[in-house]
Amino acid sequence: LPQASVERLGALQSAETTIGEQLPACDRPSQGYQLLQSYDLALLVLVSLRQGQEVRDRIWRYLTHWSQVSTPINGNDLKKLGYRPGPAYRDMLGAVLAAPLDGEVSSQEEAIALIQQKIS
Q1: How many helices (H) and strands (E) would you count in the chain?
Q2: 98 pLDDT tier (thresholds 50, 70, 90)
């Protein structure tokens, strides 16, 4: 087997345990996204084949929808709004990504208002 496949199979049991236990407890899509984003596509497919329907459905939603969502604003937009680059950028962009996943914002204007609300 190729080395990547050997490594993936080695990680399978740990991924199955983590995903199988934690994904059903995720109440919001953003939580599921946060959990699954560190796994590669092939590993997620393997895990989904060996899990129950609920976990399989959530992995499918991640692959087909959640992973395709992008932030309505980016670091350049934050800079234009007067925020200085730094560690807080990641937190702000994480909040702005979570919001559309969870149905809280759907436009750039709403995302900017969310950031301004969280910062003030």
Answers
A1: 7, 0
A2: very high
CA atoms of 93 and 72, how far apart (whole Å): 9
Residue of 64, 29, 63 whose CA lies nearest to 43? 63
Please give the helix or strand (H or E) that residue 108 lies within, else none.
helix 108-119
Listed in order, strand segments (DSSP E) in 18-90 are none
Measured between alpha carbons, how far is 44 from 36 in angstroms, rounded to an integer?
Answer: 8
- Please state the pTM of the whole predicted model: 0.84
Residue whose C-alpha is closest to residue 78's, from 112, 107, 119: 112
What's phi and psi for 68, nearest 5 deg?
-95, -10
pLDDT, one tens digit per residue, over 13-55 is 999 999 999 999 999 999 999 999 999 999 999 999 999 999 9
